[in-house]
Specification:
- With 136 residues, the protein is α+β, with helices and mostly antiparallel strands.
- It has helices at 2-12, 74-88, and strands spanning 16-20, 23-30, 33-40, 45-51, 57-64, 94-97, 107-112, 115-120.
- Helix content is 19%, strand content 38%.
- α1 (2-12) packs parallel to α2.
- It is globular and about 40 Å long.
- The two termini are 24 Å apart.
């Protein structure tokens, strides 16, 4: 099941994982920011919340996985998306940006391969894959 794979991956990456009702909360250190990924047990969706150093929520977005042409295993697709997101988050390498074109278009960006790139669109789609690195 996707949730088992996600939890195992998060723990291997050093994330704190805690049970929260019928979901798991994965906390990721992105100092000075903190990131929480909430993954329900039985739904093919997940929620991301980013807080500043004072604990104030500065970004929140969710992603759900629906059947699409060519998508056979939604659980595997979701697990892959969550793993990619977790892999992109590193301390000091995450920021929330409000474009001049509209304050409602807040973007979450990560510093990947020596440049800031959006990793989540306002539509809730994951846009960037992390660099291919081996974690030991």
């Amino acid at each position: 099941m996707a949730i088992t794979e996600i939890i195992e991956f998060a723990r291997e990456r050093g994330c704190d994982v805690a049970r929260r009702g019928e979901a798991h909360a994965i906390k990721i250190d992105a100092s000075p920011l903190s990131v929480e990924v909430l993954v329900p047990d039985e739904a093919l969706e997940w929620l991301v919340t980013v807080r500043d150093a004072g604990g104030r929520e500065i970004y929140s977005e969710w992603c759900d996985h629906f059947p699409d042409e060519g998508t056979e295993d939604l659980g595997a697709e979701m697990a892959s998306s969550v793993r990619s997101f977790i892999s992109a988050i590193r301390p000091g390498c995450l920021r929330v940006v409000t474009p001049e074109s509209g304050p409602w278009l807040v973007q979450l960006e990560a510093f990947l391969d020596d440049t800031w790139v959006p990793i989540w669109e306002p539509s809730g789609r994951l846009t960037a894959r992390p660099p291919q690195t081996t974690v030991s």
